[in-house]
Amino acid sequence: MESTLTINGRMVGDGYPAYIIAEMSANHAGSIERALELIHAAKEAGADCVKIQTYTADTMTIDCHNEYFEIEKGTWEGENLYGLYQKAYTPWEWQEALRDEAAKVGIDFLSTPFDNTSVDFLEKLGVRFYKIASFELVDIPLLEYIASKNKPIIMSTAMGTLEEINEAVETIYRTGNRQLALMKCSSAYPAKCEEMNLGTIRDLKARFGIPIGLSDHSMGAFSAVTAVALGASIIEKHFCISRAIRNPDSSFSMEPQEFREMVREVRKVEKAIGTVQYGVSRQEESNACFRRSLFVVQDIAAGETLTPENIRSIRPAYGLKPKHYKEVLGQRAKRDLKRGTPLSFEDIG
Q1: Three-class SS of residue 237?
Q2: C-alpha span between 193 and 198 (Å, rounded)
Q3: Do 220 and 73 belong to one domain?
Q4: At residue 117, what are phi and psi to the nearest 5 degrees?
Q5: 232 and 107 in a common domain
Q6: Residue 218 in contact with residue 194, Cβ under 8 Å?
Q7: Looking at the structure, do residues 254 and 137 belong to the same domain, yes or no?
Q8: Residue 277: other Cβ atoms inside 10 A
Q9: 290 and 269 share a domain?
């Protein structure tokens, strides 16, 4: 098991900034010009990576309209599976241009394959790592095929039982590929905050000892920022130019300003988490003098005994530490000590 993952030359894991993925999915709404625009917008919004999906309706399902292929509930209620994927897919003939545009603007390019033919296509395209969707977690032959390419893998785990997740991880490891990160995810669109169960991030980290992220389908930045505070190393959010441009994914996607604000909040949280540190921080140095210490609070003549009435633990911190209070009581002053003098060992004996 590897506690860090290297993605396109970048380290991902504890101690490194969260790797933030903008998921384009269907938000191109059938326009390659909009897809190219999304790549630029993702870069400007602070994403580290832009992600697409590589499939066709025929690689995902069959053109069938019996009851098994009709969607009855949720965001896509009333849709037929084949028809939905026809609307949502990213044409394969666009993908080379999208890859090149990502390289041009300096943002990583990632795709989710859904069958062996899409893996073969992405291999020819020269992708450097893969994303596995949560719905494909149980497709063991596909996992084996992706893992056999010996490239880093980010795998979502929504709906997965612990047994299914273990089986998927072991399948990948059996190929000799140990380059893996898991994503906590809720496959509801949009996901409700109360059903996110982000505490699972810590459990996944403890169980698998590899980078854990969040594939976030909830609205707003709250879940993503909380996930980073809980130890998530990767954040994935659906990204659109505008939710007013209707497509199968627009209703639960982030607009550029929202995404930019999420990135800003994530980076602030990372700074706040910092590292394990005890003692006075650099910012606290100017206030350290206001801690307590032992002071003379009544004039004391040379030879006079130190008592609870003439010395006390008070602010500021220029005298002996309060832990010496009982030690100095009953001792005598070596010299006259005026009220307001910080007590030192040189003054007593």
Answers
A1: strand
A2: 9
A3: yes
A4: -65, -35
A5: yes
A6: no
A7: yes
A8: 7
A9: no
Q: Minimal CA–CA distance to 246: which of 86, 60, 59, 26?
A: 26
C-alpha 2: how far from its chain's center?
17
Q: Are residues 240 and 303 in the same domain?
A: no
The predicted-structure confidence for 123-154, as pLDDT tens digits, reads as follows 999 999 999 999 999 999 999 999 999 999 99
Joined tokens for residue 225: 């920022």
Query: Does 124 share its domain with 233?
Result: yes
Residue closest to 238 by CA, chosen among 22, 8, 20: 22
155/299 same-domain check: no
Tokens 């590897």 belong to 2
Last residue of a domain, one of 244, 273, 302: 273
Rounded to 10°, the helix 32-44/256-273 angle is 30
pLDDT in tens, 315-326: 999 999 999 999
Report the half-sphere exposure of 190 (CA within 13 A, side-chain side).
Answer: 15
Which of 229, 245, 273 is the endpoint of a domain? 273
The radius of gyration computed from the CA coordinates of the chain, to the nearest angstrom, equals 30
CA distance 5 to 205: 13
Are 51 and 169 in a shared domain? yes
C-alpha to C-alpha distances, 268 to 121, 259, 271, 286, nearest whole angstrom: 39, 14, 5, 23
CATH at 129? 3.20.20.70
Which amino acid is it at 48?
Answer: D
Domain range enclosing 338:
285-347
Task: Tell me the three state secondary structure of residue 300.
Answer: strand
Q: 105 is written with which tokens? A: 């603007």
In the structure, what pLDDT confidence band is assigned to residue 309 with cuts at 50, 70 and 90? Answer: very high
Phi first, then psi, for residue 297 (nearest 5°) are -115, -5
Q: Crossing angle, helix 116-125 and helix 95-105, to 10 degrees?
A: 40
